[in-house]
Structure formats: C-alpha cells, structure tokens
Amino acid sequence: MQLDRYDLQILRTLQADGRISNQDLAERIGLSPSPCLRRLRALEEAGLITGYRALVDAKKLGLSLMALIHISMDQHTPERFANFEAKVGEIAEVLECLLITGQDADYQLKVVVRDMDAYQDLLLNRITRIKGVTGVHSSFVLRRVVDRTALPLP
Predict the structure, then answer these.
(1) Which Gene3D superfamilies match (predicted)?
(2) What digits encode the pLDDT tens for the residues 92-107?
(3) How far apart are alpha carbons 119 and 125 in whole angstroms?
(4) How many domains does the chain have?
(5) By the 8 A CB rule, do 118 and 67 touch?
C-alpha cells in the first residue's frame, strides 16, 4: 500500500489519540468525513492499523516493579523455542517477549509485578520452570527515560 500525506497524517493523529472521532480526525487532516473514514478502513484492512488500546498506568494498579529478564535456552530448536514462546505467552505479567541476538541470552522479557516478592514468585515458580530455560539474568528498571508507543513516520 502506497501511503500519501493524508494516510500518514491519519496514522500520526491516531498514534497520539486513538479515541478521536472520525469527524475530528477529518477536520484535523483536511478531508471530509466520508473519504477520511474510507482511508481509515483501508489502513485497517491493509494491516497498518492493528488495533486500538487504552494505555493504563501500572503504578496506579500497584504494579511498581518492572524488570528486564534475559533468558538462555538449553537447545536452539524450533520445538524448544515454540514451547517457551507458548508458555511465556500465557503469563500475564510478561508485557514483551523478544527473541534476540548479540547477547548471552536467547530471549528478553519485559515484566511488571507488584514488588520483589511477586517477582521472585514469577521467576522461580513460573519462568524458570519452563522446559529448556537454563539461564536467567535480571535487570530492574529504575526509571523510564523514554516511554513511547508511537512509531516514527516519514
């Protein structure tokens, strides 16, 4: 799909405010509502817009400890990785799971929990019990310096 300036403006605007009405979106980008809605639907159908979500404050929910966990696996087989990915996908505290290179680890997880006791439980009773996990290295987030969800657009 070729993106023109209107498509890019729609994407920029929605990344900043996913709840904007079609009328307000159309006014902001300089189109009438009907063509704006057609463009929006085309962006959704093309898979450029994958969904709409609310951003929730973790600390206000009592989830004040964030950690990055590097995971090493015993075997580098598709079956072992698929099993790990399926199991870790079932853990609600895991916000992000990345298969990585360039480290002494195979995966990086971003997790959020209430406190250190909850982290210990998550790590010892759930993550390290996944078949194939042989090494774990944790780093704790002191402060979020940059925290954005919007992608850079041309």
Answers:
(1) 3.30.70.920, Winged helix-like DNA-binding domain superfamily/Winged helix DNA-binding domain
(2) 999 999 999 988 999 9
(3) 10
(4) 2
(5) no
- Does residue 114 share a domain with residue 89? yes
25 in a structural domain? yes
Per residue in 27-49, pLDDT (tens digit) is 999 999 999 999 999 999 999 99
Whole-model pTM: value is 0.90
Tokens read off for 54: 């609310």
Q: Check: CB of residue 46 under 8 Å from CB of residue 1.
A: yes
71 and 104 share a domain? yes
Written as six digits, the tokens of 68 are: 């990055």
The domain in which residue 32 lies consists of 5-45
Are residues 71 and 130 part of one domain? yes
Alpha-carbon span 11 to 9, nearest angstrom:
5
Q: Which helix (H) or strand (E) holds 83?
A: helix 78-89
